[in-house]
Amino acid sequence: MWPRRICVVGGGTAGWLAAMMLGDSARRGGHPCEVTVIESSKIGTIGVGEGTTAVFRQMLQHFGLDEAEFLAATGATIKFGIRHRDWRRKGHSYDGPIDDPHRVAGFDVNALDVYQVAQGESVGETHLFQHLLNANRSPFAIVGGRRVPVGPYHHAFHFDQALAGKWLRSKARAIATIDDQVQSVERHPETGNITALALEGGTRVEADLYIDCTGFRRALIGPMGGQWISYRDTLPVNRAIPFWLDIPAGEEIEPCTLAWAQGAGWMWKIPTQGRYGCGYVFSDAHVTPDEAKAEIEAVLGHPIEVRNDIRIDAGRLDRQWTHNCIALGLSSSFLEPLEATSIHGTVVQLMLLASVLPNPDDRARAAFNAAAARQVDDFRDFIRLHYVSDRRDTRFWQDVAGSLPDRLAGRLALWQTKVPGPEDFAPFPMGLPHTDHHLHVPVLDGLGLLNPRAARDWLADRPKLRANARRSARSLATEYRLAARSALPHRAFLQSLSQEQPA
């Protein structure tokens, strides 16, 4: 039976997504449900930039929320993918556009990718988002005085997570809020379930289901005894120093996340309309924080003001859902922000959760925990793939080259014999979006880890498919170049949205 009272502890993006999505699912299913969010105005956040995947835009549309208002109110920008600079070798860059042209080209296999690899050409050439990214354009053009999309794909966003959380709160319906912090967790002595939360202000809050979105504090799930599964043996970085950079007046805003490989890790650069949220993610076994700061200052050519020193204990809980408590967001797992997995993972997990809450028994909990664990483990492996590099110029890159996990080594050996396709990735529950072949191929291609001869051999056995792929590749590349020329420049598009909003 769907819980009649749900208490979400912790606001921000994860907390308000949980409150909105679970409350909406309850209403649509006809389940009486009261949702309460406990968040403290005393707990601040550092807005160092957050990137999403396309599922965030789909979520906005699901709730009927206006994208233009969201962009204007939060200072968000458009994201078409990730630009990887200096990962394969210094001076080399490749992009990972997040659209999938196979969906509009009518192929039930990844023929466009295979054809591009066989030709020795970038797989990005058949992606609309690659051409929009190259030209620093928005996803819209003006036609007949109206703003219209230039393609059929969902784009993503960059934003300040604190502003996004406040905006989501302003759009929430029928959700009670309490400005306070949890002082203690009361549990049933026999079942272990949480019976109530005692707040610092003296209030006592009872619920049937508790959602922990308190981030690293893990204020609810921590006392429940969850075990942390560390990824330190797989992922090579364990520390981050975030900072901000100004956007020079008149400078175009690139519609992508920059992931720039450095001597002991990599630097992120995420544009919002007001500034760049940046940070250096590094291994403190190879450089100290002071050395990391000096390295970035040398690369950028000017001083930076470090806003925090974040220790990354990459990993996940063994069980996100235990008893009547579910951890979401940073309460449940933590990975370096290389592929925008945090918000994406939260949205997908909430979809899974909504599907099992009508019957939240032991079987439902086990199914949810298994899917959530697989999701984060797959994120881990996808992130580790990025470090398979030709670089050996520092001790960090030398050490990374000598520590390839067996599972990833096996998959890379397989992908020397074929271009990854849907058959290489088990479907995710409910068909929800996950790290499948269309995300892997641009990274593998950019790192030089695919075999053009294997691609040519595969196509040689399928001459009709090869001819269709050749025609589609040429047609899409031409069409998407023209579409990019017609699209509004990114910064001009964002400025026009602010002018349209009511004062």
- Low-confidence segments: none
Q: Count of helices?
A: 16
Number of strands: 24
Helicity, in percent? 25-40%
Shape: globular
Give the integer mean of the pLDDT values. 94
Terminal Cα span: 45 Å
Sheet with most strands? 7 strands, mixed
What is the radius of gyration? 23 Å
**Structure classification:** alpha+beta
Strand content is 15-25%
Name the quaternary structure.
single chain
Topology:
Elements: E1 5-9, H1 12-28, E2 34-39, E3 50-51, H2 54-62, H3 67-74, E4 77-79, E5 81-85, E6 93-97, H4 102-105, H5 111-119, H6 128-134, E7 140-143, E8 146-149, E9 156-159, H7 161-171, E10 175-179, E11 182-187, E12 194-199, E13 204-205, E14 209-212, E15 228-230, E16 239-246, E17 257-262, E18 265-271, E19 275-282, H8 289-300, E20 310-311, E21 315-317, E22 321-322, E23 325-327, E24 333-334, H9 341-356, H10 362-385, H11 395-401, H12 406-414, H13 437-446, H14 452-460, H15 463-486, H16 490-500
Parallel strand pairs: 1-2, 1-14, 2-10, 5-17, 14-23
Antiparallel strand pairs: 3-9, 4-9, 5-6, 7-8, 11-12, 12-13, 15-21, 16-19, 16-20, 17-18, 18-19, 21-24, 22-23
Helix pairs in contact: 1-7, 1-9, 2-9, 3-16, 5-14, 5-15, 6-15, 9-10
